[in-house]
Amino acid sequence: MKRILVINANPKLTSLCKSLAEQYAAVAIKKHDVKHVNIGDLNFEINLAEGYDKVIDLEPCLADLQEKILWSEHIVIVSPVWWGTMPAKFKGAIDRVFLPGFSFKYVEGKSIPKKLLKGRTSELLITLDTPAFWYKYIQGNVIYKNFKHCILDFSGIKNKTTTYFGPVINSSSNKRKVWLEKAARLGAKVS
Fold it and tell me: Where is the Flavodoxin-like fold domain (predicted)?
């Protein structure tokens, strides 16, 4: 049994991302301990206005998100691509939660910080309105590179897989049903 945190990074109250996250969690919970977070349900200041120069107390929902990350062994992030990368509210949550002392620690005399979230794995489910090949090879696959190299690897989280769903715009209900079934299969495969 694995401890799995499923994060719906889409701030909209209803979305394909939310449905994919719910489908994944509904199947994974049959074999694993699963917790679920919808970024749209959280109320917090997204701007880290002073960077790391001034400590800002975390709102209870962000403290809870930190606890869930620490509890987890596998983190599933379901995110749409907005303007090439993640929604601002989710980026704000990362800015506020993945802080020094929580996800990484600067070490005197070293240029690479210590990774504090080692031992965890992740999985990315990405929705987009362009064809996946276009996004990956023409637009540069920015969301994947940002998640993998700048957030997950930096903190010690090893991304195992990334699955793309798109184009979402003008997709049929049958296509969305296929995507939901795929999310269920991914939730069943976690080991």
Answer: 2-174
Report pTM: 0.96
Q: Which domain holds residue 184?
A: 3-189
Total domain count, the chain: 1
Length of the chain in residues, anyone?
191
Q: Which pLDDT does position 74 carry in this prediction?
A: 98
Question: Average pLDDT in the 166-176 region?
Answer: 96
Q: How far apart are CA 122 and CA 36, in angstroms?
A: 14
Provide the percentage of residues in the chain whose pLDDT is more than 70: 100
Structure tokens at 104: 């990484």
- What are φ and ψ of residue 102, in 5° steps? -110, -55
Choose among 29, 23, 118, 25: nearest CA to 69.
Answer: 118
Question: What's the angle, vertex CA 86, arms to CA 7 and CA 41, rounded to 5?
Answer: 40
